[in-house]
Amino acid sequence: MKKLAIAFVSALLVLGLTLTTANATPVDTYQFKTVEHQKRALKLAEELRCPQCQNQNLIDSNSPVAQDLRLEVYQMVDAGKTDAEIVEFMTSRYGDFVLYKPRWEPKTLVLWLGPIGLLLFGGAIAFTFIRRSRNAPKEEVAMTDEQRAELDALLNRDK
């Protein structure tokens, strides 16, 4: 029985070690030609959005698509391509969505000017509401003798 328990615990330890070991991908172990290339590639990969995750950049995402794109960015940087060429390649392949900071174009004006427009619209509504509430006539509500007696009874109940 003791040998069975030792064998079971050993199997669990081996399984645990197997599941927790990190698998290195080609992206994680990529060797850049220079340190400048590495810094440039990492900066560029931070500015590009993962097409699969949609809310993470290529550096933060662990998806297979992001790993492939990171490797592609790294290789293009080492191949001597400029940042503009790499961004153009990515946008031609995946659309403007891969850019965290969209370009200033007619089709992206809503993205750039939308928040300002919403802020102005909300301010105008707030201004109108406050102005109307200040200018509203103050009408006094008259109480009948019956209501006044009921109020006096409620107020004097605890005394």
From TrEMBL:
- Gene Ontology biological process terms in this record: cytochrome complex assembly
Q: What InterPro entries does its record include?
A: C-type_cytochrome_biogenesis, CcmH/CycL/Ccl2/NrfF_N, CcmH/CycL/NrfF/Ccl2_sf, For-dep_Cytc_NO2Rdtase_NrfF
Q: Does the keyword Heme apply?
A: yes
Looking at the record's lineage, which domain of life comes first?
Bacteria
Record-level Gene Ontology MF annotations:
metal ion binding
Cleaved signal peptide residues:
1-24
Provide the transmembrane region boundaries: 109-130
Carries keyword Glycoprotein?
no
| A Pfam family of this chain | CcmH
Keyword terms: Heme, Iron, Membrane, Metal-binding, Signal, Transmembrane, Transmembrane helix
What GO CC terms are in its UniProt record? plasma membrane
Instruction: Please list the residue ranges annotated as the CcmH/CycL/Ccl2/NrfF N-terminal domain.
Output: 14-155
**PANTHER family listed in its UniProt record:** CYTOCHROME C-TYPE BIOGENESIS PROTEIN CCMH (PTHR47870), FORMATE-DEPENDENT NITRITE REDUCTASE COMPLEX SUBUNIT NRFF (PTHR47870:SF2)
Family in the record: Belongs to the CcmH/CycL/Ccl2/NrfF family.
User: What's this chain's function?
Assistant: Possible subunit of a heme lyase.
NCBIfam families, A to Z: cyt_nit_nrfF
Protein name according to UniProt: Formate-dependent nitrite reductase complex subunit
Per the UniProt record, the source organism is Paraferrimonas sedimenticola
Q: Which gene encodes it?
A: ccmH
